[in-house]
Amino acid sequence: MTSIMHGDRSRLRGIRIWAVLFWLIIWQLVSIAVANDILLVSPLQVIQRLGELIFTEFFWYSIFFSLLRIIGGFILAACAGILLAVSAYRFRHIRELLEPVMLAIKSVPVASFIILALIWFSSHNLATLISFLMVLPVIYTNVLDGICSVDNQLLEMAQVFRLPVIRRIRYIYVPQVMPFFRSGCTISLGLCWKSGIAAEVIGMPKGSIGERLQQAKVYLDTPELFAWTLVIVLVSLTFERLFLLLLKKIAGRLERM
Amino acid sequence: MEPIVLYKVCKSFDEKTVLQELSMNIPQGETTALMASSGQGKTTLLRILMGLEQVDSGYISGMEGLQKSAVFQEDRLCENLNPIANIRLTNPSLSYIQILEAMHEMKLFDCEHQAAAELSGGMRRRVAILRALLAEWDILFLDEPFKGLDAETKRQVMAVTCRLCRERTVLLVTHDLSEAKAMAASGLISW
Predict the structure, then answer these.
(1) N- to C-terminal Cα distance for chain B?
(2) Is there a contact between B78 and A153 if contact means CB atoms under 8 Å apart?
């Protein structure tokens, strides 16, 4: 069973690499056909520009600036989402009170939040706020669904044996809520990067990736635009992988007796 | 020891009456078998005594402060935990060796590192029984505990259960009179 699963996984990974290579070649061919660096640059030019950027100080500073704010917003939202979900599960009134708020956050366009935030606050920590707002309802909803789906028979068993709260959380709630939380994190990690960078592009906080993207647009520097986009994708994917790996390790350690 | 007294206990679910003015004395320090045909409220009675349901009317005395343990009709194991962790969950003071020895008595071999989800039905049942027996308890509820075990395993498991329950308060729900006798049930209550 395990070997079949490993086989499937490596086959999937192989297909993905093959597909990526295919589309890179198509991109290269189209860029040669278009022959206009402003409209479409080739992947080789993007790599070349990226190679130049990584030796500059502002490149690393911009990554650090945006990473800190976007991930900060994500972590704050994850913590708040868990706390609110637990409170909503425990107290019906809190759940009822939060329901319209979460619905509003989910429905209001991210651009409206960005503009409102720019009116109310400075743009310096805009990405944190926007990333927080995008992640909060996803984590809240997923964790609440997870808590609600905890096996009632196990909770009754815990009640009869008078298991202490800590042991109930660790061995009954955490294993059953974790897949929901993990799924929420997977969805919201991509979301927080997209919305965070969008906020930076509009708000242009000094030293952010969003500001670099906006400048690339203003100067029609398409290779830099693509290079920064690639950086965002790489940083976002790396953080997602690392975070999910860390989550898996923490969950594994918590469940181990 | 004072018996556990049930007096005119009534319990209904929606429109359906499950227990109608049920009165009985359950002696402490011995095994009592509860027998009744299906749907007569045996499990409901156990759930009430376990504190998982409230009575509609009537009263129960003698249960105050008793530490409970149970084998439910379902195994109710933590699927991701191995048998040792499942047993230790209810009694962390047990050592690995103590649990392993008890598992061997129940003919549970070479499964101590497997997650409960990977165990067979019979193995899961025995782990659930062992968890209840090795927990610290004053009263043990056994709701059709040997269901799904083959004859030979059942005999061995019953022998261990019987030994660990000697002179302790046990309530056994069963449909099988021979099972009640084998468990040395001194009292038999049927309705």
Answers:
(1) 25
(2) no
pLDDT in tens, A81-129: 999 999 999 999 999 999 999 999 999 999 999 999 998 888 888 999 9
Domain hosting residue B123, numbered range: 29-38+66-186
Kindly identify which residue of chain B lies nearest to residue A164, measuring between CA atoms: B90
Give domain status of residue B146, yes or no: yes
CATH no. for residue B165?
Answer: 3.40.50.300
Contact B90 A161 (CB under 8 A): yes
Residue B51 falls within a domain, yes or no? no
* A251 contact B CB<8A: no
Query: What count of Cα atoms within 13 Å lies in the side-chain half-sphere of residue A112?
Result: 6
ipTM: 0.92
Give A124's DSSP letter: T
| Residue B13 maps to a domain | no
Helices in chain B by DSSP H: which ranges?
42-50, 83-90, 96-105, 121-134, 151-164, 177-182
At B25-58, the pLDDT tens digits run 998 999 999 888 888 888 999 999 999 999 999 9
Q: pTM of the full predicted structure? A: 0.83
How does pLDDT run across A151-188, given as a tens digit for each residue?
Answer: 999 999 999 999 999 999 999 999 999 999 999 999 99
Number of domains in chain B: 1
